[in-house]
Design goal:
By secondary structure, the chain is α+β, with helices and mostly antiparallel strands. It has one domain (30-62, 99-233). Helix content is 26%, strand content 18%. This is Sulfatase-modifying factor enzyme 1.
Amino acid sequence: MKKLYILFLIFNVTSTYLFSQENLKIPPGTIFLKDNLFIDKVPVNNLMFLEYLTAKHFIRKKGFESFADLHNSTDKKFDRVRLLYPSFLKNLNKKGSLLTRKNYFENYKYKYSPVLNVTKKQAIDYCNWRTEMVLYLWSNENENVNYKINYRLPQESEMILAKEYFSKGNKFKLIDGENPTKFKTMNIEKNFVLYNISEFTMSEIVFGENWKNITPNEFPNDITGFRCVCEIQP
């Protein structure tokens, strides 16, 4: 994957529309599921996770553990373009694996493919970081948002509901493939998309079938990714 410049990639499709029933701003990258809950249209991809790893590296170099701690320590706005280093994804490689042989984590053509070989702890930390980032960006936009948001891993029941709900409304897409390098991915999706991978949930149960047709019991692995749900809190 080439070095590239990017400005808060996963949030640059800004949430300009309001959810009419509740007059809520739609969190970036999500689609309304029920009540106060929105769910990611697609699993977190390699480029999104690269942004997270780059941000975490920058935050730690400044001596902070979270982005919230960093921006609370200064009046400076973090709104300029930063350089992403694809080498941060090298740690996801596993010797001898198909994804490593295909250069899955560093080849730019797989930038929108779901990130794999991540731990559940990393997935949870990504959700926390994303919460901080969206709240920060909304505050910089001078949005009159009088509610809180919280990104987290979905419950298994929420994933089941999403698949059923969006299937009935013609807003569901299944992207199959013999392995992740064969997935047909897009930059922006309008529908709720499931890939041929398993996904982390809040419980010990993973959701969905995967391209190896096995039930994963050791993590991280090359068949399990994740997505976030976003709760709107009064």
